[in-house]
């Protein structure tokens, strides 16, 4: 089983719908992240959390919200999806300030 | 501003050839990692290398932090090496968050 698990892996939805992407990890890491990948743009940070009571905005947080339900769970929500949120979304974890980053398998979201 | 630049953007190799990928960064770092994204989209850690040199099989990496660059070497390339290679850098004072370069797309032909 993967150490960092994302669900769903693929989702097609319509403009205006609420979408939640979930992430769970078994690595015991305190830090969790949500990234977005668009073709030719690399990965950009949406939100990050250093522990259950700590949530921080990343580079591109507008239109997104997150919830850290437990040390092992970090979910990303799109309250009202729009087509330019079509992208590949990655959850990641790390174990400290200078720690290695470990990624989930990605969630491909298409907003029509 | 803070920048992470990777070169070349695209690289085509014949199987068995060697290659060097470069990552330049604009400020002092406390974290640098190399990742491989395979054609199925999975991101795999290759190296955690804020300084020094590491080797893992046919791959090795060197970071010269004082000169603000890192190199990833691939020797005797195989078709399974194809994909996109990303450099990600954590700058001092950035709370540990990584800034990704735009990647080098490698295609290894049989």
Walkthrough of the structure:
The complex is a heterodimer of chains A (112) and B (110). In chain A, the strands form 2 sheets. In chain A, strands 2, 4, 5, 6, 9, 10 and 11 form a 7-stranded mixed β-sheet that branches. Chain A has no helices and 11 strands. Chain A has strands spanning 4-7, 10-13, 19-25, 31-37, 43-51, 54-57, 65-70, 73-78, 87-94, 102-103, 107-111. Chain B is mainly β. Helices cover 0% and strands 60% of the residues of chain B. In chain B, strands 2, 4, 5, 9, 10 and 11 form a 6-stranded mixed β-sheet that branches. A 5-stranded antiparallel β-sheet of chain B has the order 1-3-8-7-6, with no helix packed on it. In chain B, a hairpin with a 2-residue loop joins strand 6 and strand 7. Chain B starts with a strand and ends with a strand. The mean pLDDT of chain B is 93. The A-B interface holds A 31, 33, 40-45, 48, 50, 56, 58, 88, 90, 94, 96-103, 105-106, 108 and B 30-31, 33, 35, 41-43, 45, 48, 50, 86, 88, 90, 95-98, 100-103.
Write a brief caption for the model.
The complex is a heterodimer of chains A (112) and B (110). Chain A contains no helices and eleven strands.
Secondary structure: helix percent of chain B: under 10%
| Ends apart, CA distance between termini of chain B | 41 Å
Question: Percent range for helical residues of chain A?
Answer: under 10%
What assembly state would you assign to the polypeptide chains in this entry? heterodimer
Mean pLDDT of chain A: 93
Low-confidence stretches of chain B: none
Strand content of the residues of chain B, in percent? over 45%
Q: Which series of helices and strands of chain B comes N to C?
A: EEEEEEEEEEE
Number of strands of chain B: 11
Q: Most extensive interface, residues per chain?
A: A-B, 26 and 21 residues
Number of strands of chain A: 11
Cα separation of the termini of chain A: 32 Å
